[in-house]
Amino acid sequence: MKDILKAPFVEEMKKMTANMYRLGWDERNGGNISWMLNEDEVAEYLDIHSIIRTIPIGFEAKALAGKIFIVTGTGKYFKNVMDDPETNLGIFKIADDGCTAELLWGYKDGGKFTSELPAHLMSHMARLSVDLDNRVVMHTHPTYTLAMNYVHELDEKKFTHTLWEMCTECIVVFPDGVGVLPWMLCGTNSIGEATAEKMKEFRLVIWGMHGIYGAGKTLDETFGLIETVEKAAQIYMLTAHLPRINTIKDSEMKELAEYFGVNYRKDFLNL
C-alpha cells in the first residue's frame, strides 16, 4: 500500500483547509468539507474492507451505500489539519444499510465526522440527482457574505441579483444563482433536508446569519464558487452605504451569460 499521508486527496484537503482558515472563513472549529472519493484511488492507499469502527450517521442515506468520503472531523480546527490530518480528517464508507459510516482511516483520537454530516450527505444525494459528477460539499463562514445577511433581504432573486451586479464574472461563475434559507438550527436533519431541497436547484445555498454551502465536482470548483460570492459580497459591503453611480445593467448581464453560453436564471433578471 502507498502512504496514505501522501495521497493526493489528503494533500488537497490539507491545503484547502489551511487556505480557508487563513482567509478567516473558518474560525475555531467552524466549517466542514466532505469529498466523495474514487474507490480505486483509495484502494491504492487503504484496505477498503478493513473497518476500524462503525459510527451511526443519524439518518438513512442508502443512495450513497458503498460510497467513500473524506470528511473533516467534529470539533476540529481547520488550522490543525495540515499538521495532523489523521486526527482531524476521516475516510469512511457508507455501509449497505445506509445508516452507518464504516471508518477506514482517521479520527484517531476517537472522534468522528462533522455534526453537519447529515446536511452534507443529503446535499450530495440532491446534487447527484441533477449532476452525476458532483463530488464535493463545502460549508464555511465567509466574512462579507455573512455580513451581507444582516443588511440585505434574504430573498433568493434579490440576493442573487445584487451579487451579479457586483462583479462582471458573477453571472458566468454561478449562473444558477444562490439559494437562501432563513436562520435554522444547525447540526439537525431539518436544516439538512432544507439545504438538500435547495441543492436540487442551486450549487450555492446561504444559511441565514450563519454561512454558506457550496457543491461542485472538485475542491477547487466548489471553493471558487464560494470565493466569487464572497468577493461580490465584499464589494457590496464596501459600497452599500455610498451613492450608486454605476452598475452592471440587466441587459449587460444577459449579454454576458449568452456570450459565455451559460444557462442562467432568466427569472432572476428584470428584463
Describe this entry's structure for a reader.
By secondary structure, this protein is α+β, with helices and mostly antiparallel strands. The protein has two domains: 1-114, 3-Layer(aba) Sandwich (L-fuculose-1-phosphate Aldolase), CATH 3.40.225.10; 116-271, 3-Layer(aba) Sandwich (L-fuculose-1-phosphate Aldolase). The chain contains ten helices and nine strands. It has helices at 8-22, 39-42, 85-88, 117-128, 143-149, 156-166, 170-173, 189-199, 219-239, 250-259; strands at 32-37, 53-56, 68-72, 89-94, 100-106, 136-140, 179-181, 204-207, 211-216. It has a nine-stranded mixed β-sheet, with helices on both faces. Helix 8 (189-199) links the parallel strand 7 (179-181) and strand 8 (204-207). The longest helix is centred in the last third of the chain and has 21 residues, at 219-239. The protein is elongated and about 60 Å long. The N and C termini lie far apart (59 Å). The model has no long low-confidence stretch (mean pLDDT 97).
